[in-house]
Amino acid sequence: MPMVRKVQGVLCPVRDLARAKAFYGETLGLPLREEDPEGRWVEFGPPRGPGILLYQGAAGSGGGAMFPVRNAQRALRRLKRLGVQVGDLVEVPGMMIIGTFYDPDGNPHHLVQSLRPKAPRRRRASEGGEVMPPEPQP
């Protein structure tokens, strides 16, 4: 069974978060998905699909792809057993656990375990029972 099934998004370190926010939001026109209340990061992208998470850091210091996993600690241990160079686990309280690993060229990538509760699954009419209407679009 594959450990990784999709790309969640991309991490991108930036020197000036306000300038980067203006570039990605106003210049490129990407919708703002979420913003850290403490101003440490912002995420842009369409409502569905991968996004780009910008965070304050040394530009060019690496970012990498984010891969959603059910259990970041277990996935990181598995990669280590396979001979992959791995970093530490970092928890963003109430949001996610991130485990960093490096490809053969030393590029960092990230396994991301969500700590947020899952939204209830919508039922299809063919499954019987009540069908939830689609969410209104802004």
TrEMBL record:
SUPFAM superfamilies listed in its UniProt record: Glyoxalase/Bleomycin resistance protein/Dihydroxybiphenyl dioxygenase (SSF54593)
Residue spans crossing the bilayer: none
Domain VOC span(s) in chain numbering: 6-114
Gene3D superfamilies given in the database record: 2,3-Dihydroxybiphenyl 1,2-Dioxygenase, domain 1 (3.10.180.10)
InterPro entries linked to this entry: Glyas_Bleomycin-R_OHBP_Dase, Glyas_Fos-R_dOase_dom, VOC_core
Protein name per its UniProtKB record: VOC domain-containing protein
Location of the region described as Disordered in the Swiss-Prot/TrEMBL record: 104-138
